[in-house]
Design goal:
This protein has ten helices and eleven strands. By secondary structure, the protein is of the alpha+beta class. Strand 3 and strand 4 form a beta hairpin. The strands form three sheets. A five-stranded mixed beta sheet has the order 9-8-7-10-11. The protein has a four-stranded antiparallel beta sheet with strand order 3-4-5-6. Strands 1-2 form a two-stranded antiparallel sheet. The mean pLDDT is 87. The chain folds into three domains: 48 residues, no CATH class; 90 residues, Reverse transcriptase/Diguanylate cyclase domain (Alpha-Beta Plaits), CATH 3.30.70.270; 126 residues, Ribonuclease H-like superfamily/Ribonuclease H (Nucleotidyltransferase, domain 5, 2-Layer Sandwich). It is 40% helix and 17% strand. Keywords: Signal. This is RNase H type-1 domain-containing protein.
Length: 294
C-alpha cells in the first residue's frame, strides 16, 4: 500500500492500483522503474500486460468488462467437490464441510448467483461444532453440489462494467408476473402467457412457490430468444419473491426453483432485477388472469 501511495502521490504514476500484493494499471512501466530504483525485488515472469489478465485466479477482461474463472480454477473446484462426494460412507467430517464451503465461496465473487448452491450445505452444518464428527451427505446437498459442478463449467462470469448499475428506465426488457390458486402468468410488450392449474381435485398451492415459478417461466421464455436481453426488469406483487431473489437465501422447499433461476442467469448473462409492485397496480398480469379464467 505504501509503495502504491508513493508511486501515485509522489511520482505521479497515473492509474496505479494495488489489490493485496498485486499491482495493476496502464502506466506500469514507470512503476517497474520505480521498483528498480529502490531495489524492490520482483519476478519478470509475473509482470504481465494486455487486455486480458489473470488476477488472483480470475480472468479480468478489460475489453469485455468481465471477470470469469480460469480453467485451472474450475478444474480445482470440481476436483474438490468430487473428492468430497466420494468420501467413504458419504459422511465427511465437519472440517471437510467447512473446507469445501470455504473453497466454493471464493468463486461467488464472480458468480454471485451461484450462492443458492451452498444453501443446503450451510443448513446441514448449522449448529455443528465437533470438527471430526461425520455429517451425512443428504440428497439435497448431493443435488446442489452436482448443480454447482455443472454450473462452474458453463457459467460466463460477471460483467463488472454495468452489472446492476443501470436505472429501471434503462432496462432492455420489462415484464410483469403474477400467480394465484388458479394458475400463473407473465406479460411483456403486449404479449402474455398463462398456465392454468388443474382445478380437479383442487390442489394445495404454495403461492410463494408459484410466484417464483412465474418469474422462472418468464426468464426461461426470454432466454430462448435468439438474442436474449441483458438488463431485465421484472415486476412482481409477491414481496417474498422480491426479497428471496435479492438475498438468494430461500427456505429449503424453494431452493430448487431458485437454482433453476440462477442457472439461466449464469448461462445467459442476464442481469435480473425484480421490483415489488402492489397487487392493485399489477394490472397487466392480473388482467390476463381475469380474461382467461373468469
Amino acid at each position: 500500500g505504501l509503495l502504491c501511495w508513493f508511486g501515485v502521490v509522489k511520482l505521479g504514476i497515473a492509474g496505479l492500483h494495488v489489490y493485496m500484493d498485486d499491482f495493476y494499471g496502464w502506466d506500469f512501466k514507470r512503476n517497474l522503474v520505480f521498483w528498480e530504483s529502490i531495489r524492490c525485488p520482483f519476478e519478470d515472469a509475473k509482470q504481465l500486460d494486455g487486455a486480458r489478465l489473470k488476477i488472483i485466479g480470475f480472468w479480468v477482461d478489460a475489453i469485455k468488462g468481465s471477470i470469469s474463472l480460469t480453467s485451472e480454477s474450475i478444474q480445482a473446484l470440481v476436483s474438490d467437490i468430487n473428492t468430497f462426494l466420494s468420501i467413504p460412507n458419504r459422511k465427511p467430517a465437519l472440517s471437510a464441510w467447512q473446507h469445501l464451503t470455504g473453497s466454493l465461496n471464493w468463486p461467488l465473487n464472480v458468480l454471485p448467483w451461484a450462492r443458492p448452491g451452498l444453501t443446503e450445505m450451510y443448513r446441514k452444518m448449522s449448529g455443528k461444532t465437533h470438527q471430526h464428527a461425520g455429517i451425512p451427505i443428504n440428497g439435497e446437498v448431493y443435488r446442489d453440489l452436482t448443480w454447482f459442478t455443472n454450473m462452474l463449467q458453463t457459467a460466463i462470469g460477471v460483467r463488472f462494467v454495468d452489472a446492476q448499475t443501470w436505472d429501471d428506465s434503462e432496462a432492455d426488457f420489462v415484464g410483469w408476473t403474477d400467480a394465484s390458486n388458479s394458475g400463473l402468468a407473465f406479460v411483456y410488450a403486449g404479449s402474455g402467457l398463462v398456465y392454468q392449474l388443474n382445478p380437479n381435485p383442487k390442489p394445495i398451492v404454495d403461492i410463494f412457490f408459484c410466484e417464483l415459478l412465474a418469474i422462472l417461466c418468464l426468464l426461461h421464455h426470454i432466454a430462448s430468444f435468439s438474442f436474449p436481453p441483458r438488463r431485465v426488469l421484472v415486476h412482481s406483487d409477491s414481496l417474498n419473491s422480491v426479497e428471496v431473489l435479492n438475498s438468494l437465501a430461500p427456505e429449503s422447499s424453494h431452493n430448487s426453483i431458485l437454482l433453476a433461476i440462477a442457472d439461466i442467469i449464469l448461462k445467459t448473462g442476464i442481469d435480473l432485477r425484480v421490483r415489488h409492485i402492489p397487487g392493485k397496480d399489477n394490472i397487466r398480469a392480473d388482467l390476463l388472469f381475469r380474461l382467461l379464467f373468469d
